[in-house]
Amino acid sequence: EREQLKAMAGLASVTRDGAAITLHANLELPRELDGARDGGAGGIGLLRTEFLYMNRDDLPGEEEQYEVLRDLVIAMEGRPVTARTLDVGGEKLAGALADRFATPANPALGLRAIRLGLKEPKLLEAQLAAMLRASAHGPLRILVPMISQPSEMRRVRELLRAVARRLVRRGHAIADPLPPLGAMIEIPGAALAADSLASVSDFFAIGTNDLIQYTLAIDRGDEQVAYLYDPLHPAVLRLVQFAVDAARRAKIPVSVCGEMAGDARYAALLLGLGVRELSMAPAHLPLVKRRVRGLDLGEATRRADMIMGQTDGDRIAALLDDFNEALG
Ligand code: PEP
Ligand code: MG
Hints:
Layout: H1 2-8, E1 22-27, H2 33-38, E2 44-48, H3 62-75, E3 81-84, H4 95-98, H5 113-119, H6 121-134, E4 140-144, H7 150-169, E5 181-185, H8 188-192, H9 194-198, E6 203-206, H10 208-216, H11 234-250, E7 254-256, H12 264-272, E8 277-280, H13 285-293, H14 297-308, H15 313-327
Parallel strand pairs: 1-2, 1-8, 2-3, 3-4, 4-5, 5-6, 6-7
Bound molecules: phosphoenolpyruvate and magnesium ion.
């Protein structure tokens, strides 16, 4: 069985009826890159850059960030790398930043992620500069976490263009055209207004970890309420569907990069909802690929339609179990 799964890395990620499904890896640390390559990842769908800021008293500069990103882009040999801007704040404010901001009463709802980046533009500019310079070495996409409004995307894009002009003046090579700029869809309001965000975004990445947390008001780290943390809650599925449909109408790519994407059981449903790109922890790649290869997309779409017609969470889970059993 393990050998079989290992052999998966070399096989194409296509459904039985011939649809190509992109399977990417989520990385939290550069050293996970080997696992991603062993797993046959078609790219990095989510590079969490928080590691650059952790366990230190100072902030990483542009040069240091550039070198790390450049090495990753080069190591991926032409496969895309999706670098996310800093996603800290609230309870996980990095050491060098912790002193500068008041501890919020509701960290999950406070000054975090892109809100922090736009409040401290120097911080965000250094990140964007490093990403732009790394984009000269291979395909790179820039992903913005915790977007709630189109105005945030517009401001990030303005900053990105300003930083790009500055880099070019300084004689640095950067990708031309500029790298795609994408929004994480992980706030319920962002999912419900995904059509307005699609007009200012080059791609979407749906972050189901936070989307579930905020939709169901369940702290994703709180064991006491973990039993209510349900990816199959109809509210969650409807938000995912809405965001996927908005992306399709706007003709921009959409991926799912929360833990849900790395669970073969849910992956079948996500494909049925129209998702064609999944990004997951490297260890999950083989099992999800096996599910992709065993699945007929027409059948998955029919099953997903049936599931989306349900209002009862238990019924949804039962239908999905049927679906996965049929896949074996
Ligand atoms: C998510 O929220 O689903 C996500 C992928 O981002 P993170 O887990 O880093 O918050
Ligand atoms: Mg998130």
